[in-house]
Amino acid sequence: MTDYTNWPLIGQGEERSCYLNPDDPTRMAKFSPIRQSTQTRREIRYFNTLIKKGVPFDFIPRYYGEIHEKDRLGIEQEFIADEPDSFRAAPTVSDYVSRSLTAEEIAEFRKAYFQLKDYLLRWNVIPANLAISNVVVSKTPSGLRLVMVDGVGGTELIPLANWFRFLGKRKIERKWVKLTRRLNAINSRLNL
């Protein structure tokens, strides 16, 4: 059995702690205490649903499975690095757009931004919270890639948007407007 407590801690939120796999730095694990694992349980169910539907994990981290420990529940998933062969976490969209960006970098960001939106709509991938801290920017050989690393799946008791595309589209569009507003407030040159 793997001892995840020996893995380097790479992030800590209100509910979860994130650890990088020292043997395979392309993977990480997120853990919640069992008594505070609502979000983790929801994401496990949602990731399994996406797999059954054949949804590609192009703009969300690849999901490798759930981890059960005595007092914690976890998810093993892809670690999104800032660039290939790096062990540094990708910056959040907030951090990325706060920098002084060139016109070319803004154009590249805009392209990646709308690719993420197209992906969410095409595959009906529902964000629970499309917050500026839940989306990161990774540099790839083919350009920027925005990845929603946290907050996937509907939070409703009966998440109809997960199952009905027209409701999913409305929810994605509504959350996208809020994200766009926040990013334009940080850097008005984005003109999203």
Automatic annotation (TrEMBL):
It comes from the Bacteria. InterPro entries: PhoP_reg_network_YrbL. This is PhoP regulatory network protein YrbL. It comes from Oxalobacter paraformigenes.
